[in-house]
Amino acid sequence: MLEVRSLRAGYGAIEVLRGVDLAVGAGEIVALLGSNGAGKSTLNNNVSGLYRPFGGTITFDGQAIAGAPSMRIVDAGLVQVPEGRRVFPNLSVRENLELGSYRRGRAARAKNLEHVLAVFPRLNERLAQLAGTLSGGEQQMLAIGRGLMSEPRLLILDEPSLGLSPLLVEEMFALIGRLNRDGLAILLVEQNVVQSLAIAHRAYVLENGRIALSGAAAELAEHPELRKSYLGH
């Protein structure tokens, strides 16, 4: 579905990504792993159309999308749930969710809302509550629910476990697995290496703007270099 080839990208004169290749197939969870500053969010934001790459190609379902307006990319079914949740704090939970179907999924808004509330029953209890008053875990649920309202065909999740308690991290990864089993392709961008490799089909490790390792998630989990760098043994 998504194919990134020789991607070079950054900000101003600073090149962050230096020739990145990455692909996500239909029905896959693909993990993009790396420490802070490795370039993970830069890749997300170029794929999502928030920035124009310096070079290389990005295709979604065979259509070139590098530099396309972000709204067109959402229209095609490629949706990002950004790092830090980015909910609208002064709008209600319901209003935040409905905004998710502003570009795509509007015709089935009521049905999609029902689906999201079935996935996240806690949000159903807080529909009238202002999003800014939710806990961190509930805001993450809301951010993902808002993404689901747009009927994504591929969902980019940027650091969904960031700032969550260990118990909520377990819940979050279980949820991601469930969404994938329902047929959703997911690009999971994470620092949590162990949990990500446990649910992903394939993975890439990004270091200093380049792909340092890639392969089947189960194989990478046993890779000595990855274990030394990220797991401490």
Molecular structure report:
The chain has helices spanning 40-47, 70-76, 93-99, 109-119, 121-124, 136-148, 166-181, 193-199, 217-221, 224-231; strands spanning 2-11, 14-24, 29-33, 55-60, 63-64, 78-81, 154-158, 185-190, 202-207, 210-216. With 233 residues, it is of the alpha/beta class. The chain folds into two domains: 1-77 and 154-233, P-loop containing nucleotide triphosphate hydrolases (Rossmann fold, 3-Layer(aba) Sandwich), CATH 3.40.50; 87-152, no CATH class. The N and C termini lie far apart (35 Å).
Please count the helical segments: 10
Just give the CATH class of the largest domain: Alpha Beta
> Do you know the CATH architecture of the largest domain?
3-Layer(aba) Sandwich
What sort of overall outline do the alpha carbons produce when their principal axes are compared? globular
User: Strand-and-helix sequence, N→C?
Assistant: EEEHEEHEHHHHEHEHEEHH
Q: What is the beta-strand fraction?
A: 25-35%
- Neighbour order of strands in the largest sheet: 6-7-8-3-9-10
Biggest pleated sheet: 6 strands, mixed
Structural class: alpha/beta
**Terminus-to-terminus distance:** 35 Å
Low-confidence stretches: none
Mean pLDDT: 91
The number of E-state strands comes to 10
Helical percentage: 25-40%
Tally of distinct domains: 2
- CATH fold call of the largest domain: Rossmann fold
Rounded Rg = 17 Å
CATH homologous superfamily (4th level) name of the largest domain: P-loop containing nucleotide triphosphate hydrolases
